Amino acid sequence: MYIKFNQQKSYKTKVLKIAIVGAESTGKSDLAQNLAEYFQTIWVKEYARQYLENKTEKYTYNDILTIAQEQHQQAQEAMDAYQHQEFIFFDTELLVTKIWAEYVFGECHQWILDTLPYQNFDFYLLTNIDLPWQADPLREHPEPEKRIELHNLYKQNLIDFSFAFAEVSGEGNERVQNAIDFIENLKLEKGR
Description:
By secondary structure, the protein is of the alpha/beta class. It has helices at residues 28-38, 47-53, 61-81, 94-105, 110-115, 144-160, 173-189, and strands at residues 16-22, 42-44, 87-91, 123-127, 165-168.
């Protein structure tokens, strides 16, 4: 299930909030949707795709800030509206926009850097680059060396920010099942 929201509020909730991050073409959206279906909950879709599909010219540095702010707003609203759920899954978040801005433009907006540490996610799933590249007009870095570089940037940033995470590998159902196993273990750790 995908939900789009229009209001912004920010405070802690009891729902376990799981963000899915990783390089391009690593199955983040499919994984978020499959996990939401399995756990019978909602997922917050990646806003960048919707935004960029409606642009006629190449995106700019400031477009990344617009995308980050809307993605963050939708995440906060989901946390507010769906507190009764056991889980909410988020297809990307501000770490994605930070790495994107730094990789493409060599810098990142201060708003993203200031907000990123306080997003209030409980856990991250880092999608591995073990899936074959799927061509898409919005994707930019199909080269294997760039995919490795980007994956390593995600992993290092998760470590640097001290965000709890697991790396999800495998193709198709195996990938989804590996993520489910991580989440079931997380439930046990949280006493749920």
